[in-house]
Design brief:
339 residues; 5 helices
Length: 339
């Protein structure tokens, strides 16, 4: 059963939040949000394709967000149902979800009795340091920062104002996290880069020391169990506003621009440079020392072996421009039919 927030709001109130026009009864009460097929009485859902619009009258939801171009397809409305007509369903849903999100649990300022804080560390009086946290020598934790539990802050590391570190996060020595960031459970910032060379005598491998750090900008969110490795020398950097999904690997000395999106299981090898606003689909893999231009889109599961120009869309493994990939697929199908 879906989680049910305790908030109840009328359709008219939700319309005022989203700037929607109501088609139907604005006095209907909405108590939760759910998917189209799971929604029942008192639920709000969303419609953003003609296939779902055609099924609207059979849907159990009380109301739905919908764009104007789909209203006619949705057809005649039964009693006790309403449509909220908006310009952008996804943006409207952000407002709705915000209205139904329970207030965050206030975490009191102070250091839990089980936390270990080095005498030389500087922890702002307004910060919350939860149970089992460790803050090492000369580390800094900013105003209103929240370390939920079992978080480790390495020596000389810096945590910016208002940043939230969930359970098990590790920010290792000399690494820096900006303001208003969110790092989810078990994120590791500043582990050694993956660097080895064969021994001169041929008997094994030599580990390459990594003496750089990681610098994360402001308003960055990093999903659970993702890792950003420290530079061999210099910094691995992630620009402000970038959002990183779960299980993402960012190699040593990568430079990632502002407001990028890295979907789950994306992997960047060492020294990749990424411009602003780049989108990586899930499972994309980027070879080392490449440049990905601003505004580029890398499809899920793509294997990028060469530089990608700004604004380009690359698909496939090995990755190539999307148009070229589509033409190749057509030719391969033709070859299949001839055989």
């Amino acid at each position: 059963m879906a989680h049910s927030p305790t908030t109840s709001l009328t359709v008219a109130h939700l319309a005022s939040l989203t700037g929607a026009t109501v088609a139907g009864d604005g006095t209907l009460v909405i108590s939760r949000v759910d998917t189209f097929d799971a929604a029942g009485e008192g639920c709000l859902t969303f419609v953003r394709s003609s296939s779902f619009a055609q099924r609207w009258n059979a849907c159990g939801a009380t109301a739905a967000l919908i764009t104007k171009d789909l209203v006619e397809t949705a057809g005649v409305q039964f009693a006790n149902k309403a449509l909220l007509v908006v310009g952008d369903v996804d943006l409207a849903m952000i407002e709705v979800l915000g209205a139904f999100t329970p207030a965050a649990t206030a975490r009191p300022a102070g250091v839990h009795a089980t936390a270990v804080v080095d005498a030389t560390a500087k922890v702002a009086a307004s910060a919350h340091v939860g149970p089992g946290c460790v803050i090492e020598a000369h580390a800094q934790v900013g105003e209103r920062a929240v370390l939920i539990s079992q978080v480790t802050i390495g020596s000389h590391a810096k945590i910016g104002d208002g940043t939230v570190l969930h359970s098990g996060v590790r920010v290792l020595e000399h690494c820096e996290i900006g303001r208003l960031c969110i790092l989810h459970a078990n994120v590791v910032i500043g582990a050694d880069g993956f660097g080895y060379r064969p021994r001169p005598d041929g008997k094994g491998l030599l580990k390459i020391p990594h003496i750089g750090n990681v610098v994360i900008g402001d308003d960055v969110e990093i999903g659970a169990c993702s890792c950003v490795d420290r530079g061999k020398f210099g910094a691995t950097t992630v620009g402000s506003g970038t959002k990183i999904d779960n299980l993402v690997q960012i190699g040593h000395n990568c430079v990632i621009g502002r407001c990028c999106i890295l979907c789950g299981s994306t992997g960047l090898a060492g020294s990749v440079t990424v411009g602003d606003g780049v989108i990586f689909g899930g499972g994309a893999c980027i070879a080392d020392n490449l440049n990905i231009g601003s505004g580029a889109k890398i499809a899920g599961m793509a294997g990028v072996m060469n530089d990608v120009p700004a604004g380009a869309t690359y698909v496939g493994a090995p990755a190539m421009p999307a148009g070229e990939w589509r033409r190749m697929q057509v030719q391969m199908r033709k070859l299949g039919r001839k055989s």
